What does this fold into?
Amino acid sequence: MAETVQARPPARPPAAATAELIAELTVLRRDMVAAAAQAADHLRAVHPNFGLSARNLLHYLALRRHDHRPLQDRLAALGLSSLGRAEAHALATVEAVLAVLNALSGPGTAAPPLPAEAAPDFSSGPRLLAEHSAACLGRAPAGREVRIMVTMPSEAATDYELVAGLLRQGMDCMRINCAHDDAAAWLRMIQYLRRAEQELDKTCTVSMDLAGPKLRTQGLPPGPAVLLVRPARDDLGRVTAPARLWLTAQEQPRAAPAEAAASLAFPAAWLQSLAKNDAVFFVDARGAKRQLRVRSTDAAGCWAELHKTAYLTPLIRFRGPVLAATSQGIPPLEPFLVLRPGDGLRLTRLPLRDSQPTDEPTEPGFPPAAIGCTLPEVLDSVRPGASIWFDDGKIGGVVDRVEPGTLHVRITEARAKGEKLRNDKGINLPDSRLPLAALTEKDLRDLAFVARHADLVALSFANRPADVEQLLAHLARLTDRPLPIILKIETRQGFEQLPALLLSAMRAASCGVMIARGDLAVECGFERLAEVQEEILWLCEAAHVPVIWATQVLESLARGGMPSRAEITDAAMGDRAECVMLNKGPRVGEAVQILGNILQRMQAHQRKKSALLRSLQVAGMYSPA
It folds into this structure.
């Protein structure tokens, strides 16, 4: 006969342990309430929509001010819910744990009732986040809780089907970057979207990013004007197809009517002297003798073929059967410096008369290689020992010495064989506080268009509460619409100031945050990015503010390749946000579809930090022998 095993009632925890936890949590709750009271002026300044949310943010900041890992372990040992998912309802979580501890402590030993404090509870906290997300980003689509934002390429201004296709495939928010194109192009993009909304019976918001004060390299003089043209060859080096060149008139140049290896402009009189099958002789930049063979001529230009590789420059004379001429329009090579670990570089505001593009190794110490920057006024705010990064973190260095208008940089991070530094590449100075306003003159001009046509406006390089207040003041002068604002967190300073930035943004009726992981990774360190983006997610959930998960999501796929395993996992992590942003690319439509599929799958398993415990397929397949 089988033995009957009777379940034993759970043992009551020792009274001393319970009393100690109650005392500790009571002090913690008192500190949380006091933090909100001390910030009464900030709470009075926020919009009524964010009254409870701002209070919850302050409660959460007080909760996370100290390391509570030992407390978490002691609560878990008693089988109690931990404090690790308190973001949306911080005070309510602490009070719920206290209530259970009081019940466990037995009759006559419970702590006295706690004074009431306005705060969101377990149902209102998530509801406020959902309401604020809908007000800022638009309602989530049916069947998917996380929205998809897509950055528009320039082609979206001239290609209606591109815009309509993205909307059809699942785009919920169109992103226009004001750093590119112009107001006329932006307007056409928006008009195409509104037309597609009507035809497809779908809705989509328009977000416009102000460009902000981007610090970039500049000033390298152009390289030589050289054009490399070569025929197609097989693996054995044999020519399989000649290079086809389009020859057009300098006076009225015409684009090549078909694909061409190169387009060259010549005097019309010279072109008119050519006939089919004529040979055109020249000596290329290396001294190699070459010839073109004319294959066809018409009023628009000539097609010619080249069977051997040639380096062309504007000085080369092309000799036809009757006349000789030189070509115009050969572009100069893009200049660059090759930098290796140990090299020196001068970042300067001075004219770069003594710096020439080079790929030659530099001598130890500080060579004459120099490059300018777009915002030279920041150089005076940098101190010796500060770190500096170029081109999205591809090249790193340390400022060894500072002179008026010049930083002497020692390169510490680059590939051993060297990394090319070109004009118009980003510069990050994460250790330095730069005296730059978030809104440039261009931003203020663009803001007039944004206020009329956008559904939300993104503030790039949001670093200080004053940046947010300046944007809100300009918007108030430009429009009566409650235009939501997005804080783009892309610098170390912006991350460190996030609580203050959120409280300032809450003065608007609606706001959100974009985790701009490109610059943020460079500023905070690639190895720390995962930790930083988690903290941003937690703080924004505590503020009931929606988050846009941005930068390099499924980028390999969007650009035309296959997504890596890591990119798929990263896209799945986007389920923790309220919106995921995709960058432009030839296969971005396919990326929208795949991202939507990933997000739909993940929402059945995870909500923010909480596992939903949906049934596992593998558990259903398991059958004990």
About this structure: The two ends are 23 Å apart (CA to CA). Residues 354-358, 360-367 have pLDDT under 50 and may be disordered. The first helix runs from residue 15 to 38. The CA atoms of residues 6 and 12 lie 18 Å apart.
